[in-house]
Amino acid sequence: MNKSLKVAVPIILVLVAAAGGGYYFWQQKHQAPAGKDQTAQGPVLYTCAMHPFIIKDKPGTCPICGMQLIKKVEGAKATPEEQKMLGHVSLSPTQSVMANVATVAADYAPLSKEINAVGIVQYDQARQAKVTAWVAGRIDKLNVNTVGAYVSKGRPVAEVYSPDLVAAQQEYLLALRSRDQFKKSSIEAISQGGEGLVASARQRLKLLGVKDAQIAGLEKAGHPNIKLPVYTPLSGIVIEKIVQEGQYVNMGDPLFSIADLSSVWVEVEVYENEFSFVKMGQRVEIVSQSYPGKTFAGRVSFIYPFLDPKTRTVKVRVDLPNPGLKLKPDMFVNASIKAPLGNALVVPITALIDTGKRQVVWVESQPGMFEPRDVQVGARVGDKVQILSGVKQGEKVAASGGYLIDSEAQLAGGSGGGGHEGHGGAAAPAKGTPAAPGAGGGHEGHGAPAAPAAPAAPKKGGGINMDDMKM
């Protein structure tokens, strides 16, 4: 018996040793990759999307808002949804008050763009004329001797003596007497020929500027008029006096320049980035320093088809009534053109962050949580800006404090607000350090506000457990 035990014990020890070694090698083979991967990746941490300063080493819910915690991963390893959440900025009520963040809902409103420009009063070219000599002769009398005098269409402005005119009148009187004699002839060709002579002589008088009433007076008087009255083609103001009394003139020589100032033009210079809003028939309000508080109203009648390369402006012609002749040619005036744009989606202009290459607004996706949106903007009118795309009606945008939210995003290393061209990017804080709004951000022209107050301590007997927060 003793001999058998001596043989069995070594065999059992060998089997146990072999089993232990096999188990050890099997454990090393199956657990080495997992251990290696865990060592490389480190412990998995969880955080809240709305409160990124909440960090835990196990899944669960946020002790502040109750949202489900998500894995805290680096931006390069994050999923698209996690990447989007990393760009969001979360503010507590205290932080919102300290940063003066106010939201306004984007909504449709009637929008009209107001274009302000300068203009110069000009003569209405359709209401200008020249008084010319219809015949060669001598100016025997001038009824208008000064520039600025008012002349009427029905009253003569001058009297001209012309030998050619006297000869034409005598010819007409002779044609009249010949017609009466030819009518007595029994030959039909001769009796009808008199009418042709009268018509020809009458036409010559009309070409010399003699009116029908003057021809009728000539027939009644039976002798020629030595002086021919000269009439103006329209009523208006004499803006140029060219001749003197006693001066000899040729046929077609100008005597006066007349302009009707009851209606004038205003040529307004509109910059090239605004003239596309100007349309024919739009109402234009004109004001002048000569008449404070007085507004003149006109309509756009023409848009010139060329641009001034020196001033980069396009001229717009405005037809303007001029009661009392208050507006004088070459007077400088200010013009205001209101171009209706219809109903448009608008937000306060303070909500827009223009980086030079991008236009960004911060939209409140959830209470206290903001996300950046790239938007396409249209017209900017007063304190509102038109939104063409990027924001929907009813969405709330940060009307004030947007630059502070943008600074918070840069400090937190988010993809939404960081890296804006034209804004000095601040370095991200150390891991585990919360980013306070306005603590940096490098926005020129915006002073850094005071850091927000520390979160209030939880009430005794319950509330938030702060032990697992890595502040």
UniProtKB/TrEMBL annotation:
One of its GO terms (cellular component) is outer membrane-bounded periplasmic space. One of its GO terms (biological process) is copper ion export. Keywords: Ion transport, Membrane, Signal, Transmembrane, Transmembrane helix, Transport. It comes from the Bacteria. The chain crosses the membrane at residues 7-26. Residues 263-339 form the CusB-like beta-barrel domain. Residues 46-72 form the Heavy metal binding domain. Residues 129-259 form the CusB-like barrel-sandwich hybrid domain. The keyword Transcription regulation does not apply. It holds the Pfam family BSH_CusB. InterPro entries: 3HB_CusB, Beta-barrel_RND_2, BSH_CusB, CzcB_C, HMBD, MFP_Cation_Efflux, RND_pump_MFP. GO terms for molecular function: transition metal ion binding; transmembrane transporter activity. The keyword Methyltransferase does not apply. Residues 413-471 are annotated as: Disordered. Residues 346-405 form the CzcB-like C-terminal circularly permuted SH3-like domain. Residues 426-437, 447-459 have a biased composition (Low complexity). Residues 164-224 form the CusB-like three alpha-helical bundle domain. NCBIfam families: RND_mfp. Belongs to the membrane fusion protein (MFP) (TC 8.A.1) family. This is Efflux RND transporter periplasmic adaptor subunit. It comes from Geomonas terrae.
